[in-house]
Amino acid sequence: MSGSLNSYGFYPQARSTLFVPDQLVAGNMKLVTRTVTFGASQTLPRGAVVGRVTATGQYILSVATATDGSETPCGIVVDAVETAAGATQTGAIYEMGEFNSNYMTYDASWTLDTLTQALRQWAIFIKTGLSNDIV
């Protein structure tokens, strides 16, 4: 009988798509996102820590030694963004949540400790993932 359920509750030749999370999100805290404009000439992977340039309102990779406003990290990129020279692009950032430091990208001017403290004011909490591997 074609198209009928078998004793296990599945249709013959049924297919399923498996979602495998990347483990960037590291807790049950509610995630808050917002659509923003990313500055030109950037390649930002998912999990990149960004700051807002005061003069333009655009988001770029946060650098601790910057003086344009982006030295204050205030978001984490939701999906990878690549902008061309002279062109901006809209995309989403996480504005609140718990995140795994092992899956984040941030500038070398930051240490994990200072970045964790800087993001806390925005209700972005950084966790360090622990491995179950036996050493």
Tell me what portion of residues adopts beta-strand conformation: 25-35%
- Give the CATH class of the domain at 32-122: Mainly Beta
Structural class: mainly beta
**Number of strand elements:** 8
Instruction: Report the end-to-end length measured between terminal Cα atoms.
Output: 54 Å
Q: Rg from C-alpha positions? A: 20 Å
Secondary structure tally, helices: 1
What is the H level of CATH, i.e. the homologous superfamily of the domain at 32-122?
Answer: Head decoration protein D
The shape is: globular
Helix and strand element order: EEEEEEEHE
User: How much helix, percentage-wise, in residues?
Assistant: under 10%
Which fold name fills CATH's third level, the topology of the domain at 32-122?
Answer: Virus Head Decoration Protein, Chain: A
Q: What is the architecture of the domain at 32-122 at the second tier of CATH?
A: Beta Barrel
Poorly predicted residue ranges: none
Main sheet: strands, sense, barrel: 6 strands, mixed
| Overall residue-averaged pLDDT value | 87
